[in-house]
Amino acid sequence: MKKNWLALILAGAMAFSMTACGGSSGTAATAGGGDTAANTADGEKAPDAGQGDQAAGGGIEKPSSPLRYSLGTGSSGGNFYLVGGGIATILNNSLPDYFVITSEETGGSTANLTMIQNGEMEVGITMTSSLAEAKEGTAEWTGGPMDKIRGMVALYPSYMTMYALSSSGIKTVSDFNGKIIGLGSKGAAMDSVLREAFDKMGVKPSSIYNDGHGATASAVADGQVDAAVLFSFPPFAAISELEATQELTFIGLTPEEQKQLTDMYPFYTAATMPAGSYKGATEDVPTVTEWNMLVSSSEVPEDYVYLMTKTLLENNPQLMEIHKSLEYCTAENILNYNVPLHAGTVRYLQEVGVNVPDELIPPEYQK
Description:
Elements: H1 5-16, E1 67-72, H2 79-94, E2 99-104, H3 109-117, E3 123-127, H4 128-136, E4 149-165, E5 180-182, H5 189-201, E6 207-209, H6 213-222, E7 227-232, H7 237-243, E8 248-251, H8 255-264, E9 269-273, E10 285-297, H9 302-313, H10 316-322, H11 343-351
Parallel strand pairs: 1-2, 1-3, 5-6, 5-7
Antiparallel strand pairs: 3-10, 4-7, 4-8, 4-10, 9-10
Helix pairs in contact: 1-2, 6-7, 9-11
């Protein structure tokens, strides 16, 4: 009988959800518990790893007990939270002798990258705008270049979604002038990138409202915020809930605005959100997209990232039961990363015949 993956995912998310400050500690392979197989300082498996039992996991030795890894998601109710919980469920069910992966509720992209860089988390979901800032290390939240971040699996593209109450009269980005605009959590990549973008485009909001996307949608409903922006693959729950009681307008970009954004920020791509994505999106909405990515620490051993990558990519039907956007989770789409890939991911891509460009190969990868 076909498994009800959504039920498993929701149960897994409830069972495994933790606060961001409750992340793992210690080395990558021992995080979250002291009964896991240890790694040596140079990343090699300790000699007490399981011996001789290689039937599962494509010949990769089982650890003496399952490795306890943390996977950073986002706030409850968002796509990161749902997708991260689903990924943890698939990996735990497919590879029970290898992993106990805990999906953690966190502050999202930048929080996950910070915890991975600091050794508090092994895997997390983020966006390519955050990866660009992490690589450069110039944004205040980064504390300098984040050299431990490695690409693992591409998940799905998100549409830049701008919306307002229809009664507001806001129909274009130019109408943001003099208005209160919600840009998600303060300090997140979207907030810093779009503040800069609006300035360069000559758009001058009266103020920027910073809070989570659910709270921002509520603020739009209450008239505290005139228009809001987020990146998501539709439908986003907070917007759908708002549309149950309010009529919304979805603001598109002109071709010139699309070009401005994609010229300024290479992680954006001109795209169209299809009509019908939301009740108020009665026509196609021209916009831009960026990718949502699963990333890992360079300190997680190659064998284990290879095994996780292989398992996820070869179970795409199960992924699509989590969220329809995960149809984009393919080997070829991994080439959309803007940071080096993990050695385990490179190994898998080479194995399936995907040519990996030099700029995505990490220094630790050995052919």
